[in-house]
Structure formats: C-alpha cells, structure tokens
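Quick one:
INPUT:
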C-alpha cells in the first residue's frame, strides 16, 4: 500500500514538473515573440516620414501611393495636364525643349517622361534642323510606372516615332526609378524631367543620380510647377487649384483624389531659390531658373562641369 502511494506521488510530481516546464517554454516563446514584435514596432516607428500632398506618410507608403495615382490617371494624363494648366502646359513644354536646344548627336535621358511629351518634342526639334554630318541622336524615355510607358509607346506608334521612321534617331523605353538608376556613369549628355520630380520621395537622390549619369559638360533641365512671385496672383491660383481642379478631375476623368494630391504636391515642392540650392548641392554648376506664367511653373537648369 505504501509503495502504491509513493508511486502515485512520484507520478503526480512528474506531471507537475512537466506542466511547469511547458509553462516556462510558453513564457519564453511569448517573451521572444513580444521582443520581436517590439523590435518590428520600433523599426516601423523609426521609418522616416515624408509628405504625400498634405498628408504625412511613411516613405515606403508614398512610393506606393504615387504609383497608384499615376496608374489611375495614365490614360487621362493629357486631360489631367489640360485641366491643371488650362492647356498651357503644351506651351511650357515647347519652351522647355527650346531652352534645351538639342543638337544632332545628343544622348537624352527623359526621366518621368512616360507619355513621351518631352521626348516627342525633342525628336521633332531635331527633325527640323539640318544634320549634314548625319549624326545619330538618342533618347531614353524612362518612368517608374509601366502604365505610363505603355501609353507613351502607343502614342509613339501612332505618331510614327519608331525605329523604321527615324533613321537618325534611336529610341528606348525603360522602366526606372529616378532615385536609383541602373544606367552606367556618364551615359548621357542631357537629362530632362518635366512635372515629375515633385512626386519623388528623395529629391536629393534624384538630383545625385542625374549628376552621375551625365557626362562632363552634360546639362540637367527640370520643368516643374512652382510658386508665384505675386501674393495676389498666388491667392487666385490657390482658389483655382483647390476649388476647381479636383471637381473638374471628377467630372472629366472620374477621378477626384489624384487631382487633389497633385494640387497639394505642388504646394509642398520647394520654392525656386531653395530648389536652386538643392541642384547646386549635388555638384551642378551655372544653376539658374526661369519662371513661366509668373511662376506657375519654372525651368531649372544646371551643368555638370
């Protein structure tokens, strides 16, 4: 009888010990999981933030949000520009290419140029000036959004801006991130970006990459919505921007939010003098800007010397 009681007691002790060991293991696992969650939360909380229009978002979120905006408006991009500028964007782009003044033999990288607006003007510009030495020119049209590039390539086909129709011009379409280009150093002698740089998360990285891929003597040019030089005109412009453009986007393109973001992104973009300093900071020289339409847009230019 005594033996039976002792055996049961030992069995009970073993069960109790197993229970305690199991509970300790569970606590350890829970502690490890909690630590991992805490580390993840800390990593998330320490992620840099930036602006998406007037919203403050994580940098990783902005990339996705901007991508979604242009994915949504890709097919109505020209309409969007017409609504935002009352059609004047076409004149601004003409002036922009005239200021670039390309010559035959130019190798151009047109960044954020998915729909081809600047590249097509560049091709047309060169087609209208003599080329007695039959120099071969080139343009790489690049954008982070493949939907925009698809629209541009269809437009190029309809305009006959394809290899068979351009014997003295080579054209390449490539999906690229302006902040980390895959092109080798000194690949181009001209770099343009029109109405695209304000949508990038790190403007300084875009400028640094532009500097890297340009050859010595190469020129950087940026056309971007900017800030008016007159307070009264700025107030009137703000009323039009916030009260008219988003509703017009909804009526004409069935899109309100993308237009609201684009209006807000313009206000968050650095003023002309500040942006000029940013361009100089990465190494560009002879940096200058020209206001168009009282500063609604500005052309910024710099050289890699």
């Amino acid at each position: 009888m005594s033996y039976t009681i002792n055996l049961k007691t030992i069995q009970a002790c073993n069960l109790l010990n197993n229970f305690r060991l199991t509970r300790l293991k569970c606590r350890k696992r829970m502690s490890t999981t909690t630590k991992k969650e805490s580390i993840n939360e800390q990593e998330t909380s320490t992620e840099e933030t930036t602006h998406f229009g007037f919203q403050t978002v994580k940098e990783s979120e902005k990339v996705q949000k901007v991508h979604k905006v242009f994915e949504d408006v890709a097919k109505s991009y020209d309409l969007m520009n017409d609504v935002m500028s009352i059609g004047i964007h076409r004149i601004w782009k003409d002036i922009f290419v005239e200021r670039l003044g390309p010559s035959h033999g130019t190798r151009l990288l047109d960044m954020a140029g998915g729909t081809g607006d600047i590249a097509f003007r560049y091709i047309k510009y060169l087609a209208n000036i003599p080329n007695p030495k039959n120099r071969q020119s080139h343009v790489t049209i690049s954008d982070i959004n493949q939907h925009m590039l698809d629209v541009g390539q269809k437009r190029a086909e309809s305009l006959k801006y394809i290899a068979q129709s351009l014997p003295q011009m080579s054209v390449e379409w490539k999906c690229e991130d302006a902040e980390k280009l895959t092109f080798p150093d000194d690949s181009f002698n001209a770099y343009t970006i029109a109405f695209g740089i304000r949508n990038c998360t790190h403007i300084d990285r875009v400028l640094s990459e532009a500097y890297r891929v340009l050859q010595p003597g190469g020129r950087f040019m940026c056309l971007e919505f900017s800030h008016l030089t007159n307070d009264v005109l700025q107030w009137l412009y703000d009323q039009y921007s916030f009260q008219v453009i988003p509703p017009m986007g909804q009526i004409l393109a069935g899109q309100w939010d993308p237009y609201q973001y684009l209006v807000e992104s313009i206000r968050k973009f650095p003023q002309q003098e500040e942006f000029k300093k940013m361009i100089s900071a990465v190494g560009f020289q002879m940096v200058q800007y020209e206001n168009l339409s009282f500063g609604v847009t500005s052309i910024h230019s710099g050289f890699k010397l």
